[in-house]
Amino acid sequence: MQILFNELSLTGQFSNQDAFIESGLLPVIGVLKEMKEFSMILLKKSDAWSKMITPSATLHSLLVKNVRRAADEVRRFKLAIADLTKAK
């Protein structure tokens, strides 16, 4: 089964990166873990990383160009995305 990541729901709606991690990222990590148990593949558009999570930060900037990139939650998200987007 394949699941499509809806990056259009990221519209700079979080006030800051910490709010995104707590309210947006943690619930998504739980869903990604369940998807892995069922051997699902996650599909995403190539521009998903450029979507705004706050009025001034993109998803890419949180994952790569940020001091928060080493936070446990961010690392778990990266690992889950990597696992689910690999071709099996």
Task: Give structural attributes.
88 residues, mainly alpha, 2 strands, two-stranded parallel ribbon, single chain, globular, 3 helices
**What is the string of SSEs from the N terminus onward?**
EHEHH
Fraction in beta strands: 5-15%
The strand order across the widest sheet is 1-2
- By DSSP, the count of extended strands is 2
Task: Output the structural class.
Answer: mainly alpha
Largest sheet: 2 strands, parallel
Query: What would the principal axes of the Cα set say about the shape?
Result: globular
Q: Give the radius of gyration.
A: 13 Å
Please state the average pLDDT score. 84
The total number of structural domains is: 1
Number of helices: 3
**End-to-end span in angstroms?**
12 Å
**Oligomeric grouping of the chains:** single chain
Can you give the helix content as a percent range? 40-55%
Unreliable segments of 5+ consecutive residues: none
Question: What would your notes on this structure say?
Answer:
- By secondary structure, this protein is mainly α.
- The protein has one domain (2-85).
- The chain is built from three helices and two strands.
- It has helices spanning 17-37, 59-63, 72-85; strands spanning 2-4, 41-43.
- A two-stranded parallel sheet has the order 1-2.
- Helix 1 links the parallel strand 1 (2-4) and strand 2 (41-43).
- Helix 1 packs parallel to helix 3.
- The longest helix is centred in the first third of the chain and has 21 residues, at 17-37.
- It is globular.
